[in-house]
Automatic annotation (TrEMBL):
NCBIfam families, per database record: RelB_antitoxin
One Pfam family linked to the record: DUF6290
High-level lineage: Bacteria, Bacillati, Bacillota, Bacilli, Bacillales
Protein name, entry field: Type II toxin-antitoxin system RelB family antitoxin
Listed InterPro entries: DUF6290
Organism: Metaplanococcus flavidus
Amino acid sequence: MATISLRVDDRDSKLIRDYAKLKNTSVSDLMRNAIIEKIEDELDVENFDRILANMEKTHSLDDVKKELGF
């Protein structure tokens, strides 16, 4: 397993440690999960933008409901 160091000032360190304690998790798990979620969110947005740009036509929810008879 690899180790990554992160330098933060005392105020940020206290904030991170207190938040991890509040969430009943370790600082390591808190940081790992936050970073992975951030990466996944950005990838989701990039994929959505790429797919939307390649679509020839889009439909509103109202159009879909109307077409399906709802």
